[in-house]
Design goal:
ABC transporter ATP-binding protein; globular; binds adenosine-5'-triphosphate; ATP-binding; ABC_transporter-like_ATP-bd; about 300 residues
Length: about 300
């Protein structure tokens, strides 16, 4: 059997027990001639974390937005299919999406905090978000919210609940929004650079929460990140994107240590080797630090 056919048989077997399948997906925006995504295939299993890495404009956010049906007015799926646990999402309309978003698929953005309603206290919006998806009393929902705010590292969760979003710092808003998405324990969590606005400690705390969600709830995740250290620390699989295509896809160690695509090699060479301290700050388990070949020159905080 050739390597290629063995690979494709393995890929098919993996896709068969997938939580999420993206098959031959192409997406275009009406204002652009070039498609934003072209023939993208990937899958995410229950309890699996996939990191998407790639240059700006490569289509990472578009992929997440297509999965959760939020491409916006100008965006359109022109080919392919997306299924969640066997349910096709591609033809879903308004009310259908309401049953999917939140509890089935959660999403956190780089600036999720900005999506909090500025004229309502955290308490009322958090409790409403919980109770619209979970059968809990107000009191139970309040306690659950406090627990999640605490777990994400917010020191005085009762105070957070009593404030309006603009009374919180940007990082506090972001963590509140992440806590809200996690509280619903979605089957699939899409996270678009969720920690990029946070300091290193807050970042480590959020990553720890993501790991707990994966380990305890078997949540599948797609995490978009520019940081190889984050991809290496949490992801089971890595996808490398460029110009709307998924150029490379595979187990994290395999992609980072033995990249097949020249662009992946270029990308890895452009960052210095993972710094051991950063690795340990981000990653609390025993996973060994993968070696990344041929580091680039000089200091670069985007390691
Ligand atoms: N709403 C939109 N309307 C028109 N074009 C868009 C829209 N959103 C994204 N695009 C285009 O689609 C392509 C992919 O963009 P996308 O935001 O998915 O990339 P990305 O990899 O997430 O980039 P970044 O890392 O900078 O967030 C780009 O060419 C971008 O200009």
């Amino acid at each position: 059997m050739t390597g290629a056919s063995a690979d494709s048989i393995r890929d098919q077997a993996e896709a068969a027990d997938a939580l999420l399948r993206v098959d031959h997906l192409s997406v275009s925006y009406s204002s652009n001639e070039r498609p934003a995504l072209h023939d993208v295939n990937l899958s995410v299993k229950h309890g699996e974390v996939v990191a998407l890495v790639g240059e700006s404009g490569s289509g990472k956010s578009t992929l997440l937005r297509a999965v959760i049906g939020l491409l916006g007015a100008g965006g359109c799926i022109t080919a392919g299919n997306i299924t969640l646990a066997g349910l096709s999402l591609t033809g879903l309309k308004g009310r259908g999406w309401e049953t999917i978003r939140g509890r089935q698929i959660g999403m956190v953005f780089q600036d999720s905090g900005a999506y909090l309603n500025p004229i309502r206290k955290i308490e009322s919006q958090y409790i409403e978000a919980i109770r619209s998806h979970l059968r809990l009393s107000r009191r139970e929902a309040y306690q659950l919210a406090l627990q999640h705010l605490q777990e994400i590292g917010l020191k005085d969760p009762e105070r957070v609940m009593k404030t309006y979003p603009n009374q919180l710092s940007g990082g506090m808003k972001q963590r509140t929004a992440i806590a809200m998405a996690m509280t619903l324990q979605p089957k699939l969590l899409l996270a678009d650079e969720p920690t990029s606005a946070l300091d290193v400690l807050a970042q480590a705390r959020v990553l720890e929460q993501l790991r707990m969600l994966r380990d305890h709830q078997q949540t599948g995740m797609i995490l978009v990140t520019h940081h190889m250290a984050i991809a290496a620390s949490i992801a089971d699989k890595v996808g490398i994107m460029k110009e709307g295509a998924l150029l490379e896809w595979g187990n994290t160690a395999q992609v980072l240590q033995g990249p097949r695509n020249p662009y992946t090699r270029e990308l890895l060479a452009a960052v210095p080797e993972l710094k051991v301290a950063e690795w340990h700050a981000l990653h609390k388990s025993e996973r060994p630090l993968p070696e990344i070949p041929a580091a680039g020159k000089g200091e670069n905080e985007h390691a």
